[in-house]
Write a structure and sequence with these properties.
Blueprint (H helix, E strand, L loop, with lengths): L1 H52 L6 H8 L7 E7 L3 E5 L2 E8 L4 H7 L6 E3 L3 E2 L6 E10 L5 E10 H12 L13
Antiparallel strand pairs: 1-2, 1-7, 2-3, 4-6, 5-6, 6-7
Helix pairs in contact: 1-2
Amino acid sequence: MLFRSLCLEQQRSQVEAGEVRAAQLARTSANHLELTLFAVDRALKRAGAEIVENWPDGGGAALARAAGFPERQEIELAFVDADGLLVETDRGKRAVPVNVAGRSYFLVHRDTSQVTTRMMPPILSRHSGAWSIPVSRAVRDHEGALLGVVVAFINATALGEVLHNVSMTPRDVLDIEGEN
């Protein structure tokens, strides 16, 4: 009976320790993710404002200046014009624009007059074959007409590695849920 009581006490202690670790892990991961998304949101706002200011001449320079993310983040900024053509990234103008008019990160802004930052579910890149998390924001002129959409593509694998390096073990799993 004493042995069983000790086993139950040890099991209860392990459960409590696991719950504490899970709470710490959730706080640390949420904090890192919040900081990343805050930096992305600022970059999208900065790039959008500069694109409007220099319209129709410049998105690329604005994207490059707005980016400035730590290399380990692997975040690429892009500009999609009002027709849904990805024409420029923070790495330069695309020789051949890519039609992304059917992608959710474009449609969500085309179909509304709002200027909000939206995080969409991960997508598989048609170009690189890598998973990325698109975070997008409409770029509208002073009358509210859609000029295009600025998008930050966050490399999902790199983000996962950063979160694991922050405080996660290979056995930990982090699910991110929310409307947006």
